[in-house]
C-alpha cells in the first residue's frame, strides 16, 4: 500500500518538475533530472521527431549526462532508429524496454513530440513504473511542444526584429489606441531620420513626433486625416512630408496591417524620396526656366534668362554667357550673374586668348570638366574672382556658358549635369534666335537694298548693316564687268577698310570668288591658308564665305579666324545674296520703267495731243471744204480722234493715279461730289443731276478720288440709251460699314461683263476702251481702301463705301 | 596499497607523506586527516607542493583506520595509479558553472574511480553533484563526502599539491576499478509531508505548517522524547527526514538547526513541492545497513586491494558506543579498511543516480590492478 502510495508520490514529485521553462533545453533538462533522480536511473534523453524527405528522424534535444551515448550506453542509442520509414508503426511499438550489455533501457513515446529514453545499469526497469509514467510523458510532450512553438515564434520574432532593426529605411510599429496611432517600436533608421530614440518614442503618438507643425492640412492628408491615422486595416502607399532632424523630408509612406480586429496594428515604412522630389522640383524648375529661355525674343534675352536659370536652378553664384563676336574676334560677355558683375566691377572681360580653357571648350564643343582651385583663378575672368571650381559648357557655335563656385563650395555631379542640360537648351534657343534674327536682318537689309536707286547704293546699304545685324564685319561686294570679264570691287565694310587698303579685282582663275561667280555656287572656306585657289592665302583672312549675287557679282564675308563660319551663316549669306540679286534686278527694272514712263508721259502729254490737234484741225478744215457725202466720214475721223484723245486723257489720268497709288489725303466726300456735279452739269446739260447729303464725312482716300466719282456719274449719262432724260442721283450718307457715296441712274443698267474689270486686271480688257473708266474706279477704290458694289435694277446703282 | 596512520597531522605529517610518496609503487597519495591548525599553514602547503606525487586530501571530524575511528592523526594511503586531481573552486557560488573544470565522462577502456571531497559548509554542493552527474553519468564510480568540522563556519579543509582550500571540491580520478555499496538503514516513522515552502537546505513549512512544529509533533508522537529548540540537535540525530526515490532507499536529509521562524536547516537541499517523511533508526538497522553496504561493495569481487569507508559523522554521534559495531561490520573483511567520518556522503554505484547523502554509509572496494 505504502509502496503504491510512494509511487504516486514520486510520480507526483516528478510531475512538479515538468513544465515549460525558459527554453526548450531547460524544460527537458529539469524534467529529465527529476525523472533520473526520482527513479534512480542513470541516463535519460528526450528526442524530437523530425520529418524528413526520407521519413522521420529523431534528434536529441536534451540528455543527461551530456553525452549519454558514449560508453556503455551506446547500446541504448542503437535501439533508436536513425530514420524511421514507418513512424506510426514504430510509435505503436512503444514503450519498448530491453537490455543490452548490462544496460536496461526503456523507449517511451512523447505524443506528438518525440521520444523519451531512460536507462540504468543493473536491475531492469520496473514495468509498473514505466506504465505509470505515461501521463507524465504526455505532460512532458506538451511542455516540449509548447516550448518548441514558443522557440519557433521567438526565432521568427527575433528574425523579424533583426530585419526590423537592420532595415535601412525608417520603420515604425504602430498600434491603435482610442483611434490614435501609438508607437510600439521604431528601428535605428527611424531614430537617425526623425531624431527620436525607441525608449522616448514608445507609447507616444506617432503624428505628434513627426508631423510638421505648420502642416495642419498637409498635402498628403485626405479629408484632414494623416496617412499614419488611416493606415489601420489597409495597405497604404502615400507620399508625405514629415519633419526630420532640423528639416522637412519627402517620404513614400507604406504601411502593412498586422494584428487582429481586436488590436489593430501596422508596420509603417518611410522610404525617403527627398532627393528624388528635390530633383523633380529642380527638373520642373529647369523646365520652366528652359521654356523661358526658348521663348526668348533675341539672343540677349536668352542669355539673360540663362543666367536667371543658373541662379534659380543650379544656385551657382558666378555665371556668365559669352557669345562669339566676329568683330572682336572673341567671346564677349552678354549676360553675367550679379555676383560676377560685382566681382569684375561690371566689366567682365572678352575672351580673346585662344589658350584658355574657355576657348578650348568653345572650339572643341565639349564641356570642360570641373576645374578646381588654382586653375580656376588662372582661367576665369578677374584676378580677384576667387573660385573653388568651375565648369565651361559650349553653346554650340554661339559661345560658352561659364559656371564657377566660391567660398569653398564645389560643383557637384548634379550641378555639372544640370549645366550640361541647360547649355544644350540655350544652344537650341540661340540657334533659333540667330536664325530668326538673321533672317529678320536679311529682310531689313533687303528692304533697304530695295529702296536703292543704283547698284552701288544697294551694295553700300547692305554692307553698312552687315557688321552689326549679321556679324559679318569683314565683307565686300564685287560687280561683274562683262566687257573686261572681271569682278570689280563695289564697296566693303568699314572694319574691312581698316584691314585692306585696296580691294582686289578678281579675274577668271585667280580666286575662289571668281569660282563662286562662275559656278553660281556659294563657297564656304574654313581654312584659307594653304588653299590652292585662294587669291591671297597668306593674307589676314583665314576663313570666308563667298556667295554669287546672280549675274550681278559676288558678296564675300571673311574672318581672321579659321573655321569662323557656320552652316547658318552660310544660309543667311545665301538668302541675302539671293535677295540682293532680286534687288539688283528690281533696280534695273525700275530704271527701265522710269525711262518708259518718261517716254509715255511725253507721248501722252505732247506727242499724241499735238498730233490729234493737227488731225482734228485738218479734219474740220476738210469738212468745210468737202462734198456733202464725204462729211460723215470727216465727222467719223474727228469723232475717232476725240475718242483717242479721251483715251489718252484716261491714260494720263490712269498714269497719274498709279504713280500716286501710295498717296492718301483727307477728302471731303461732300465737296468731292459737289465739284463733280458742277463739272458734269456743265459737260452734260441734258442730264439731270441730283445730290442728297445725309452726312458730310471726311475720309482718307486717294487724292484723285473725285475722278472715280465723276466717272461713275458720267457713266450714268454717257451710257443712257433709253428714251428718257438721264437722271443721276448722288447720295452721301453714313452706314453701319462706313461713309458711303451712292450713285444711281435710270439707265439700262450696266452689263454684267463690264463688271469683270473688278476681277481681272489684264491689259487686254482695256483694249476695248470701255473698261478704262471702270478700271479707274476700281483702282481708286482700292488705293482708298473702299469697296465698290453694283446693283442693277431699273438702272444702275453704285455704292462706294469707305472704312470707318 | 601502502597505508599508514600517523598520530599527528598537519606539518607533523609531512615526513610520513614524503616517505610514502617516495616509495616506488606509489603514484599518488590519499590523505584523510583530522583537524589541525597547521594544516592551513604555509609550511604545510609548501610541503605538499614539494611532494613528488599528486595528493588528494581532506580534513574530517574523524578518520577510520583498520577498524577504528579516531579524532587524532591522519591516514595516508599510497595509490598505485597516478590520480588526476582537479580542484573546483567557489562551490557556494550559485551563479557559477563548474562544468568547465570537469572533463566529460568519455568512455575509457579502463574502469575508473573518482574520489570526490567537498567542503561540507559550501552551499551549492547538490548543484555541483548534479553537474558532476551530467558530465560523467555513470561512467565512473564516485565515492567521497563532505570535509570539514562540525563548527558552523567554513575553514580550509581540502588539500592538494596546489594548496589547502575551502569552499571547493576536489575531484580525483584513478585508474582503479571499484565497487560501491550505499545504505543507511533509517526507517519510516511518519509522512509523507509536503514541502510547501523551502529554499535550498532551509525547510520552512510542511503542509503549510512551520516545519519545526510538524517535526516536533511527529517525533514526540513516536517516542518519549520531548523536542525543544535546545535539544533539537540531539533529537535530530535520531529522527532525520527522508526523500523518496523509487526502487531505492530514501535519501536522508539530516536537520541540524532550528530557527526562530520554525524553519529547519538540513545538510542538503529539500526541494519545495516534494514529499518527505520522518525517519528513525535503530542501532541494529544502521549497523545492518553498513554491513549491507560492505556486502554490496565487496560481494562477487575477489581481488579487493583495499576498502574505503565514508560514514556520516552523525551516525557515529547517534550510535555513540555502538558505533564500534558499525565499524566492525564494515571491517569484516580481510582487506584493510580506511576512511573517514564525513559530513554528508557522495556516491553512486555505476548503476543509478549520483547523489549527495546524509546519515549514510558508503563503502567502496578498490580492486587490484
Structure description:
The complex is a heterodimer of chains A (804) and B (369). Chain A has 25 helices and 28 strands. In chain A, strands 3-2-1-6-5-4 form a 6-stranded antiparallel sheet. Chain A has a 5-stranded antiparallel sheet with strand order 8-7-11-10-9, with helices on both faces. With 804 residues, chain A is an alpha+beta fold. In chain A, helix 11 (274-294) runs parallel beside helix 16 and helix 20 (567-624) runs antiparallel to helix 21 (631-659). With 369 residues, chain B is α+β, with helices and mostly antiparallel strands. In chain B, strand 8 (113-119), helix 3 (125-136) and strand 9 (141-147) form a beta-alpha-beta unit. In chain B, helix 6 runs parallel beside helix 8 (323-330). The mean pLDDT of chain B is 88. The interface between A and B is medium-sized, with 34 and 30 residues.
Q: How would you concisely characterize the structure shown here?
A:
The complex is a heterodimer of chains A (804) and B (369). Chain A has 804 residues and is α+β, with helices and mostly antiparallel strands. Chain A has 25 helices and 28 strands.
Please write out the topology:
The complex is a heterodimer of chains A (804) and B (369).
Chain A: H1 2-16, H2 24-39, E1 43-51, E2 56-64, H3 74-78, E3 83-84, H4 87-92, E4 96-100, E5 103-110, E6 114-121, H5 127-132, H6 134-166, E7 171-177, E8 180-186, H7 188-194, H8 198-201, H9 206-210, H10 227-230, E9 236-244, E10 247-259, E11 264-272, H11 274-294, H12 299-314, E12 318-325, E13 330-336, H13 338-343, H14 357-364, E14 368-372, H15 373-379, E15 389-395, E16 399-405, H16 413-450, H17 455-469, E17 474-481, E18 486-492, H18 494-499, H19 512-519, E19 523-525, E20 543-549, E21 553-559, H20 567-624, H21 631-659, E22 665-668, H22 669-683, E23 688-693, E24 698-701, H23 705-718, E25 727-734, E26 739-745, H24 763-766, H25 771-783, E27 787-792, E28 796-801
Parallel strand pairs in A: 23-25
Antiparallel strand pairs in A: 1-2, 1-6, 2-3, 4-5, 5-6, 7-8, 7-11, 9-10, 10-11, 12-13, 12-16, 14-15, 15-16, 17-18, 17-21, 19-20, 20-21, 22-24, 25-26, 26-28, 27-28
Chain B: E1 2-6, H1 14-22, E2 28-33, H2 42-50, E3 55-59, E4 62-65, E5 68-70, E6 74-79, E7 84-88, E8 113-119, H3 125-136, E9 141-147, E10 158-160, E11 163-165, E12 169-174, E13 178-183, E14 187-199, E15 202-206, E16 209-210, H4 211-221, H5 232-236, E17 241-243, E18 251-258, E19 264-267, E20 275-280, H6 283-298, E21 304-312, H7 313-319, H8 323-330, E22 337-342, E23 345-347, E24 355-357, E25 361-367
Parallel strand pairs in B: 2-3, 8-9, 21-22
Antiparallel strand pairs in B: 1-6, 2-6, 3-10, 4-5, 4-22, 7-12, 8-12, 9-23, 10-11, 13-25, 14-15, 14-20, 15-16, 15-19, 17-18, 17-20, 18-19, 21-25, 23-24
Helix pairs in contact in B: 6-8
Amino acid at each position: 500500500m505504502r509502496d503504491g502510495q510512494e509511487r504516486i508520490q514520486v510520480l507526483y514529485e516528478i510531475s512538479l518538475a515538468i513544465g515549460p521553462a525558459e527554453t526548450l533545453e531547460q524544460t527537458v533538462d529539469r524534467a529529465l533530472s527529476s525523472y533520473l533522480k526520482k527513479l534512480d536511473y542513470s541516463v535519460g534523453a528526450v528526442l524530437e521527431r523530425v520529418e524528413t524527405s526520407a521519413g522521420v528522424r529523431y534528434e536529441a534535444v536534451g540528455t543527461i549526462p551530456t553525452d549519454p551515448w558514449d560508453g556503455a550506453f551506446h547500446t541504448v542509442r542503437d535501439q533508436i532508429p536513425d530514420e524511421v520509414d514507418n513512424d506510426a508503426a514504430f510509435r505503436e511499438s512503444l514503450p519498448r524496454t530491453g537490455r543490452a550489455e548490462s544496460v536496461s533501457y526503456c523507449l517511451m513515446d512523447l505524443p506528438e513530440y518525440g521520444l523519451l529514453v531512460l536507462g540504468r545499469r543493473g536491475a531492469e526497469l520496473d514495468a509498473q513504473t514505466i506504465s505509470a509514467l505515461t501521463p507524465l510523458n504526455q505532460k512532458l510532450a506538451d511542455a516540449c511542444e509548447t516550448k518548441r512553438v514558443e522557440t519557433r515564434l521567438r526565432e521568427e520574432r527575433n528574425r523579424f526584429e533583426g530585419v526590423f532593426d537592420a532595415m535601412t529605411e525608417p520603420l515604425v510599429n504602430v498600434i491603435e489606441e482610442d483611434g490614435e496611432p501609438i508607437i510600439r517600436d521604431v528601428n535605428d533608421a527611424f531614430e537617425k531620420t526623425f531624431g527620436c530614440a525607441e525608449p522616448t518614442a514608445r507609447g507616444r503618438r506617432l503624428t505628434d513626433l513627426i508631423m510638421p507643425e505648420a502642416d495642419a492640412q498637409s498635402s498628403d492628408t485626405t479629408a484632414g486625416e494623416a496617412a499614419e491615422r488611416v493606415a489601420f486595416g489597409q495597405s497604404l502607399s502615400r507620399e508625405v512630408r514629415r519633419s526630420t532632424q532640423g528639416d522637412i523630408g519627402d517620404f513614400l509612406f507604406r504601411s502593412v496591417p498586422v494584428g487582429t480586429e481586436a488590436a489593430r496594428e501596422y508596420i509603417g515604412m518611410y522610404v525617403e524620396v527627398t532627393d528624388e522630389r528635390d530633383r523633380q522640383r529642380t527638373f520642373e524648375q529647369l523646365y520652366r526656366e528652359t521654356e523661358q529661355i526658348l521663348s526668348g525674343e533675341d539672343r540677349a534675352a536668352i542669355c539673360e534668362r540663362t543666367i536667371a536659370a543658373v541662379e534659380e536652378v543650379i544656385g551657382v553664384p558666378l555665371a556668365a554667357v559669352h557669345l562669339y563676336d566676329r568683330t572682336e574676334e572673341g567671346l564677349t560677355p552678354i549676360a553675367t550673374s550679379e555676383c560676377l558683375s560685382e566681382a569684375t566691377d561690371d566689366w567682365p572681360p572678352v575672351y580673346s586668348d585662344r589658350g584658355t580653357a574657355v576657348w578650348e571648350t568653345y572650339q572643341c564643343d565639349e564641356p570642360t570638366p570641373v576645374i578646381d582651385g588654382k586653375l580656376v583663378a588662372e582661367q576665369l575672368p578677374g584676378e580677384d574672382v576667387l573660385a573653388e571650381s568651375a565648369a565651361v559648357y559650349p553653346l554650340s557655335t554661339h559661345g560658352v556658358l561659364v559656371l564657377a563656385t566660391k567660398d569653398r563650395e564645389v560643383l557637384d555631379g548634379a550641378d555639372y549635369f544640370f549645366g550640361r542640360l541647360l547649355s544644350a537648351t540655350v544652344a537650341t534657343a540661340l540657334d533659333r534666335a540667330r536664325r530668326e534674327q538673321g533672317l529678320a536682318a536679311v529682310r531689313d537689309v533687303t528692304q533697304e537694298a530695295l529702296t536703292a536707286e543704283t547698284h552701288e547704293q544697294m551694295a553700300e546699304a547692305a554692307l553698312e548693316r552687315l557688321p552689326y545685324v549679321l556679324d559679318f564685319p569683314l565683307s565686300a561686294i564685287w560687280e561683274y564687268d562683262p566687257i573686261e570679264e572681271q569682278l570689280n570691287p563695289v564697296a566693303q565694310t568699314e572694319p574691312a577698310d581698316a584691314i585692306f587698303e585696296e580691294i582686289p579685282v578678281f579675274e577668271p582663275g585667280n580666286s575662289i570668288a571668281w569660282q563662286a561667280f562662275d559656278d553660281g555656287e556659294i563657297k564656304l572656306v574654313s581654312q584659307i591658308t594653304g588653299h590652292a585657289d585662294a587669291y591671297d592665302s597668306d593674307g589676314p583672312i583665314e576663313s570666308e564665305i563667298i556667295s554669287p549675287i546672280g549675274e550681278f557679282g559676288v558678296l564675300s564675308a571673311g574672318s581672321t579666324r579659321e573655321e569662323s563660319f557656320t552652316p547658318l551663316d552660310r544660309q543667311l549669306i545665301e538668302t541675302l545674296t539671293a535677295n540682293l540679286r532680286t534687288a539688283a534686278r528690281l533696280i534695273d527694272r525700275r530704271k527701265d520703267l522710269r525711262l518708259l514712263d518718261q517716254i509715255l508721259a511725253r507721248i501722252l502729254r505732247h506727242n499724241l495731243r499735238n498730233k490729234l490737234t493737227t488731225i482734228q484741225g485738218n479734219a474740220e478744215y476738210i469738212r468745210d471744204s468737202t462734198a456733202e457725202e464725204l462729211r460723215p466720214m470727216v465727222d467719223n475721223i474727228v469723232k475717232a480722234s476725240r475718242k483717242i484723245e479721251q483715251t489718252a486723257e484716261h491714260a494720263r489720268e490712269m498714269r497719274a493715279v498709279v504713280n500716286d497709288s501710295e498717296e492718301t489725303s483727307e477728302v471731303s466726300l461732300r465737296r468731292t461730289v459737289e465739284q463733280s456735279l458742277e463739272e458734269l452739269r456743265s459737260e452734260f446739260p441734258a442730264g439731270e443731276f441730283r445730290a442728297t447729303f445725309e452726312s458730310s464725312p471726311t475720309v482718307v482716300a486717294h487724292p484723285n478720288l473725285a475722278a472715280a466719282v465723276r466717272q461713275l456719274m458720267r457713266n450714268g449719262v454717257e451710257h443712257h440709251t433709253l428714251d428718257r432724260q438721264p437722271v443721276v442721283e448722288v447720295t452721301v450718307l453714313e452706314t453701319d460699314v462706313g461713309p458711303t457715296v451712292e450713285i444711281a441712274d435710270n439707265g439700262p443698267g450696266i452689263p454684267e461683263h463690264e463688271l469683270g474689270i473688278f476681277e481681272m486686271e489684264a491689259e487686254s480688257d482695256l483694249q476695248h476702251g470701255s473698261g478704262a473708266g471702270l478700271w479707274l474706279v476700281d483702282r481708286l477704290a482700292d488705293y482708298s481702301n473702299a469697296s465698290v458694289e453694283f446693283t442693277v435694277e431699273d438702272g444702275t446703282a453704285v455704292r462706294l463705301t469707305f472704312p470707318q | 596499497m601502502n597505508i599508514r596512520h600517523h598520530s599527528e597531522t598537519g606539518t607533523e605529517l609531512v615526513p610520513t607523506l614524503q616517505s610514502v610518496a617516495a616509495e616506488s609503487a606509489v603514484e599518488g597519495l590519499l590523505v584523510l586527516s583530522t583537524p589541525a591548525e597547521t594544516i592551513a599553514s604555509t609550511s604545510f602547503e609548501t610541503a605538499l607542493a614539494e611532494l613528488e606525487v599528486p595528493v588528494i586530501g581532506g580534513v574530517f571530524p574523524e578518520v577510520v583506520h583498520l577498524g577504528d575511528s579516531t579524532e587524532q592523526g591522519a591516514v595516508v594511503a599510497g595509490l598505485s595509479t597516478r590520480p588526476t586531481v582537479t580542484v573546483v573552486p567557489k562551490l557556494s557560488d550559485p551563479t557559477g558553472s563548474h562544468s568547465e573544470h570537469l572533463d566529460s565522462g568519455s568512455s575509457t577502456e579502463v574502469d575508473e574511480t573518482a574520489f570526490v571531497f567537498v567542503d561540507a559548509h559550501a552551499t551549492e554542493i547538490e548543484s555541483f553533484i548534479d553537474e558532476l552527474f551530467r558530465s560523467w553519468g555513470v561512467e565512473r564510480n564516485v565515492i567521497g563526502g563532505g570535509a570539514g568540522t562540525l563548527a558552523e563556519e567554513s575553514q580550509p579543509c581540502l588539500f592538494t599539491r596546489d594548496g589547502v582550500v575551502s569552499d571547493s571540491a576536489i575531484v580525483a580520478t584513478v585508474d582503479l576499478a571499484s565497487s560501491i555499496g550505499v545504505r543507511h538503514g533509517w526507517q519510516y516513522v511518519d509522512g509523507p509531508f509536503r514541502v510547501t515552502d523551502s529554499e535550498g537546505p532551509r525547510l520552512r513549512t510542511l503542509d503549510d505548517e512551520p516545519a519545526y512544529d510538524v517535526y516536533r509533533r511527529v517525533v514526540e508522537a513516536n517516542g518519549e522524547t520531548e523536542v525543544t529548540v535546545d535539544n533539537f540537535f540531539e533529537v535530530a540525530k535520531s529522527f532525520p527526514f527522508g526523500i523518496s526515490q523509487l526502487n531505492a532507499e530514501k535519501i536522508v536529509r539530516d536537520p541540524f538547526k532550528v530557527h526562530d521562524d520554525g524553519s529547519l536547516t538540513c545538510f542538503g537541499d529539500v526541494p519545495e513541492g516534494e514529499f518527505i517523511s520522518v525517519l528513525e533508526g535503530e542501532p541494529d538497522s544502521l549497523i545492518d545497513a553498513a554491513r549491507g553496504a560492505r556486502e554490496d561493495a565487496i560481494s562477487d569481487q575477489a581481488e579487493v586491494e583495499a576498502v574505503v569507508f565514508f560514514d556520516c559523522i552523525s551516525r557515529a554521534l547517534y550510535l555513540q558506543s555502538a558505533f564500534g559495531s558499525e565499524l566492525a561490520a564494515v571491517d569484516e573483511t580481510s582487506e584493510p579498511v580506511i576512511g573517514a567520518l564525513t559530513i554528508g556522503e557522495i556516491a553512486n554505484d555505476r548503476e543509478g543516480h549520483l547523489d549527495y547523502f546524509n546519515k549514510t554509509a558508503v563503502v567502496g572496494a578498490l580492486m587490484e590492478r
